[in-house]
Write a structure and sequence with these properties.
four-stranded antiparallel sheet, alpha+beta
Length: 476
């Protein structure tokens, strides 16, 4: 009898099973070595030590068996995730960062006879790109702590566990990814606007509008009226069915310009001046970039709150009070800090107090730079403006005219100035406190005329609210 000339069926089954296991084992060995190296040359960004620890934590429990490949083919969830990576631009991200153009060739290299090295490299590439994409989609591409110290989030939660338990065998990958994005209506509006402007930018260049020596008023002749109407129709400011007179700036075109002006932070006066022309001439590609960066900033915002939040959009000069589903329930204009000099900081804190009829404790910097020069010009300035001088323990020293000795003590900081409560108080009749290192808060104001401006950066950093009573009712 010759050994090996006959193999029982059970033995055949064992050999076949062993062959499959050896194939997976080969991929596992390749994966283990690649993960340990922290580098995969196939990637757009080969060094993956940024997520290296999470990748190792992902593969160790599965003994480095491939997660995204079954029987030589990419799994259904892998295919869905690859589609998301190739369409990353719709989210304001760059598909190149996640190897978007490379996935077609990688998929074609798979198959029943694909070498272990191909399977391992494909699987690791998708895991690394998946983790990078999830972090970028959820928290943003840049660490916001670079720009705003209190927003240094870093890696949030169990990234490896999330990929393993929610994505590898997901029935609906898009739904899983949608849940990672900010839950705010404004974010979704920006996302829709990005797609619209990206399509417009790819279609055709916008016409260039000449500057004007003086503003074009409604009813005036305007040679570029038809080009203006065409652009505003594309942008959605002019209804497509609107009838626009040739060569005349009038009718629905004026209303469309007002809508355009309001959307771009200009006074919606309907006059075509140089500021309006400058905004009309901004390339659509730059608008696309603005929208991409806006989505990035939205991702820096905390995605959940223990209580319904009040959100101040600083460059928009708007406040929104959101409900538990993060839908807007109350909106109002705000005045924020002066750009580049006293800008309102970006941060997140819990509101602790609502104070009615507050004192205004004048900051020492304002006391020295602004109030003392006014006192030196008019010694009765304190009395006329309802100020009083107090000690560190709030004992009132003076409410009348200031002499030289009092001014010296004020300049040194030994004494400080505060404004008594009342309708003339700079904080109005209510302020909202959320203790923070910047000493910034929300408050009412007697200077209500500033809310009619389109650009509203006039404060020293604190935020003046247009409807303080409505906000107090909502908060309480």
């Amino acid at each position: 009898m010759k050994i090996g000339t006959w193999i029982p069926r059970a033995g055949l089954a064992f050999l076949l099973t062993a062959a499959v296991a050896l194939g997976a084992g080969g991929s596992a060995s390749e994966l283990r070595d690649l993960v340990a190296s922290g580098r995969l040359a196939d990637l757009q960004w080969p060094d993956f030590t940024d997520v290296g620890e999470q990748v190792r934590t992902f593969y160790e429990p599965r003994t480095y068996q491939p997660a995204w490949v079954r029987h030589g083919k990419a799994t259904r969830s892998a295919m869905a995730f690859i589609q998301a990576l190739t369409l990353a631009s719709a989210k304001g991200l760059d598909a190149e960062d996640y190897d978007g153009p490379r996935w077609a060739d990688r998929l074609s290299s798979l198959g029943d006879s694909a070498p272990d090295s191909i399977v391992a490299r494909f699987d690791l590439a998708l895991t690394v790109c998946a983790m990078r994409y999830i972090l970028d989609l959820h928290l943003g591409r840049a660490n916001p702590g670079i720009y705003h110290g209190s927003f240094d989030f870093g890696v949030e939660g169990d990234l490896a566990g999330f990929v393993a338990h929610h994505l590898v065998d997901a029935n609906n990958v898009p739904d899983v990814l949608d849940a990672l994005e900010p839950p705010f209506d404004s974010y979704r509006c920006v996302e829709a606007a990005l797609q619209k402007y990206a399509d417009l930018a790819a279609a055709s260049p916008i016409p260039s509008f000449p500057s004007t020596k003086k503003p074009v008023d409604p009813g005036s002749p305007y040679p570029a009226a038809e080009q203006l109407a065409a652009l505003l129709s594309k942008l959605g400011d002019l209804p497509p069915e609107a009838a626009v007179p040739s060569g005349s700036y009038s009718g629905p075109l004026v209303d469309a310009v007002k809508r355009f002006q309001a959307r771009h932070g200009l006074d919606p006066d309907g006059r075509i001046g140089n500021a309006t022309v400058a905004e009309l001439n901004v390339p659509l590609s730059r608008r696309v970039r603005q929208l991409q960066l806006t989505l990035e900033r939205w991702r820096w915002v905390p995605h959940s709150f223990q209580r319904p939040p009040v959100v101040v959009n600083i460059p928009e000069f708007e406040l929104r009070a959101l409900n538990s589903a993060y839908r807007s329930e109350l909106e109002m204009k705000v005045v924020v800090g002066k750009a580049y000099q006293h800008q309102t900081p970006v941060f997140s804190e819990d509101m602790k107090y609502v104070i009615f009829r507050p004192y205004w404790d004048v900051p020492l910097s304002i006391q020295r730079a602004e109030i003392i020069p006014d006192i030196e010009k008019d010694r009765s300035y304190l009395l006329k403006n309802h100020f009083e001088v107090v000690t560190a323990d709030d004992r009132v020293v003076s409410t009348g005219e200031a002499d030289d000795r009092l001014i010296v003590r004020l300049r040194s900081g030994e004494l400080r100035i505060r404004q008594i409560p009342g309708p003339e108080n700079s904080l109005g009749l209510v302020k909202f406190l959320f203790p923070n290192p910047y000493d910034v808060y929300l408050h009412a104001t007697p200077a209500t005329e500033l809310f009619s401006r389109s650009r509203r950066d006039f404060s020293h950093g604190c935020i003046r609210v247009e409807k303080p009573v409505d906000l107090a009712e909502w908060v309480l």
